[in-house]
Amino acid sequence: MKRSRFSEEQIIAVLKEQEAGMPTAEVCRRHGISSATFYKWKSKFGGLEVSDARRLRTLEQENSRLKKLLAEAMLDNVVLKDLASKMYDPPCPCKGRLVLTVPVCTNVSGLSRVGRCCGQALMRSARLVPR
């Protein structure tokens, strides 16, 4: 964030000058600021005291810090989900039953197996009848 030439105390003093009756153009000319800057300050600090402005600044800093922590945590969560999805082996479609007729469980080597359900490998001709 860009650092301002003016502290919160100085900004509030400028705003109070205008509230005391000095024309806005004169206040801006005296302090070397544009009228857009003055009205931006007025929308942000109008009606605040110095202690309120300090509290506002500390709350904004804390809010920024917490947003950064949340963004990091969300990024970590996405990375962990991605890793978990790569590490997870989906279960065999036969759901643990010894049904060797499921084509997904058929191995390229000619052996038919139940997949990772029971870890057995049988010849393709040895088919079990489902219950």
TrEMBL record:
Gene3D superfamilies: Winged helix-like DNA-binding domain superfamily/Winged helix DNA-binding domain (1.10.10.10). One of its GO terms (molecular function) is DNA binding. It comes from the Bacteria. GO terms for biological process: DNA transposition. This is Transposase. Pfam families: HTH_Tnp_1.
